[in-house]
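Weekly structure sync, notes
Attendees: PL (lead), two postdocs, one rotation student
Agenda item 3: pending single-chain targets
PL asked that the sequence for the first pending target be pasted directly into the notes so everyone works from the same version. It is reproduced below exactly as submitted, 155 residues in total.
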Amino acid sequence: MRSFDLAPLYRATVGFDQIADLMDRVMANDVSNQTYPPYNIEKTADDAYRISIAVAGFSDADLSVEVKEKALVVSARKADEDENRTFLHRGIATRAFERRFHLADHVRVTGASHRDGMLHIDLQREIPEALKPRRIEIAKGEAIEKDVVDAKAVN
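Predicted structure, written out during the meeting:
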């Protein structure tokens, strides 16, 4: 894997710490552990998303979905199974896992459901009114003069 030096980014920018931290976090992740469990991220509407994770063999009690510090943390721990069972072939992985998804600003988890071996987590981006674009009415006719002091009144 390539390594990038982000020092020029830190020296030349102000206020972009989150982007640099995100790039550091992505490049530092262990690539070999990124395949289990498989998952999809889909866009279901303009500001809605769904994360679907294949969790075959796990019950609702085995799964945990939490939001901590702008990160969605999905983890699973399988309760100890009966040790008297002997497998001739064991192809269904039920090993413990923890998967993290970094959430952008104003994205919140709206719900989670578990059915047919899939864990579905719904997310919604909710932009505050102050950050939404707004239309400014253009006044017609004379220009509006605000806080203009008459020179004769001052002298």
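Discussion points:
- The CA atoms of residues 46 and 94 lie 35 Å apart.
- Helices lie at 7-12, 17-28, 151-154.
Action: rotation student to compare against the earlier draft before next sync.
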